Amino acid sequence: MTALPKSKRSQPQRQAPDPTLVWVLSPTLEGESVAAVRVEALRVGSAAPQIIDSFAFNGHACIREVLTRCEATPPSRIVVVLPGSAVICRTLTLPSGSADQLEMALRLQIENLLLGGSARWRTEGAMLPATDPDAPRKALVVEWPAKQTAPADLLPIMQAVPVTFAPSIAALATLVTGAIGLGASESLAMDLERAAGSIAIAFSNGLKSAFRVVREDGTNESQWRDAIVRALRETLLAAEVPDTETEAICVRVESAIEMRCEGFFAPLSGGIDSFRSLIKGSPDDDAWWHQNGTAAGAAAALGQPTARLCGLRAHEEVENPGIARRMLAAAMKPKVAARLAIAATVTIALVPPAVAGARLLYLRWLLPEPQAYGRILDRDDKQGSMYRDYERYAWPITKLLGDVASTTPVGIELETITLGQAAPLSVTGTSKPVGSGSNAADSILQMEAQMRASGVFDRVEKSWDAPNNNGVVKFELAAAIIKPTLVPNYTDDQDFAKRTLRERKYGSLPSEGTSTAPDSPSVPTLANDSAPDAGAPHQSSGEGTAATAAASPPVAAAGANSGASDEARTRRRPSSGGASGGTDIARRGSPGAQAVAPAVPEPLTDQHIAAMTQAEAREAAGRVSTARGLSGLDEATEARLKAEFYKLLERARNP
User: Fold this and answer.
1) pTM for this structure?
2) In CATH, which of 3.30.428.10, 3.30.1360.100, 3.40.930.10, 3.60.15.10 is domain 397-575?
3) How do the domains of the chain map onto residue ranges?
4) For residue 310, what is the DSSP state?
5) What is the phi/psi pair of residue 412, to 5°?
6) Which residues contact 124 (CB under 8 A, 6 or more apart)?
7) Which residues contact 436 (CB under 8 A, 6 or more apart)?
8) Segment 193-221, tens digit of pLDDT
């Protein structure tokens, strides 16, 4: 068998609490600290509570002594007696009814009386015993306000053992009503605590009852005695006691408080004797009752219906409160709530400006020149607006012509192309059979299919005449342009930029690396190995570079003749040692012409712009836009071109 470590074996095991053992603890306060403690150990069960032990500790170490005693014989519960001035006492009258109905009526009256002003664990109520079953029942309600806190010295005890609190008025009410139930004609009990300024009085004669808690100033002894007598008179008056009996009782009390004006008092004849039978084991010594009578009443209450009045708690009872519950419980305290409100107000007032200032500093660090950035944004917005207007009112005509060419199959020659925003695309041309076993209509149908597949054109309508003797058909075709800016992904057989018409008809040219004699002409080889036409253009290779020929696109101008000369026409390619790229482009567009730099257009007045047509305005806007892109313009010219550009755009929009 394995032995436990020495530290574990030497550690004493804590005893289990006795469920029938209850301590009633009466602390004596000096300011906010506990100066002395008296404890009554009770045995509770089915019968009346029984006092089995009494002990007291004095000095600031009294709480430590109580904890040591508690570890030796742990009780199941400790009831701490509260001064009468620490609670608010109320007496309620309940209607006749069954026990369940009375309990429900008591809870409803407590809720209506408090209206959520106090925590439920700091409020209790209990029905008092009644001698006459037909008389209305009385109930006593005690409320422990949140501003009245338990002594901080009791915290170690509260952490070790379950602790509840019993107000002194509950103990007095238990003794008084218990004595009446045992046959006493009238009963009076008082608890005086001069240091706390508390006066608690309970009176009952079987027919009328009065319970009162008063807080007075006990610094002056004479004034303290006068306050006791005055509070007693008011209590007896509330119980409708005759004046003669009131005076007699007040005389007895005055004589009783001459020698001692604090502690427990039962001034009526047979008062203490009637209380002894309520709790077993209580001493017969009257002096013990004067010192511990309130604690004995709290012990007696544990076996009476008023036991609920001894169940007040300082905090809500939870098994393992989390951080959220602890924070909520702390926020319920008035001081903490006030501090939280102040902190929230300061946060709301200061945090938003601080965050905004930090954000502004960060933005200034990221953007040191906001004015320049604003000008860039304005320029981008205007350019975006211009491009949107271009997309809406100006079509890419060159791109659309390329789409028409890419969707036109070999065998079709176009004669006219009509293209505009106000009307659909309209083309006319001729179609001839390509290869054996085909007719001209197949090429027209293929063109329709390719136009639909491109995504640029839709709703294609076509018509053609009867073929002539050579099988050539004249046709007309109309189509709607649905996506003018779409760039289709054409195949190599459709894209003439990838595979030219000449390559489709006559095959590929010799590779660029093939060398020829310096003075011998380079003539493209035809597909049928025949000699070229005499009128066909050719070019000698310059500095060892062979010339290449490119076929013309299948779009012919209106009225152009189609024949072998068009099919054999080639384009002269510039030599590697030629002019610059801009001159080459100009020569391709117009052979022999030189590239001309765009000039700044002449100023336009508002009358000139208003007299223009839409087409003229769009053309003039294009010239102005080109001129705006020139470098070296002065600010005045830039401003004029900018103003004229937007005026021309506005004129082009509005017919």
Assistant:
1) 0.48
2) 3.30.1360.100
3) 35-317, 397-575, 606-653
4) G
5) -115, 130
6) 141, 142, 308, 309, 311, 312
7) none
8) 888 889 999 998 888 889 999 988 888 88
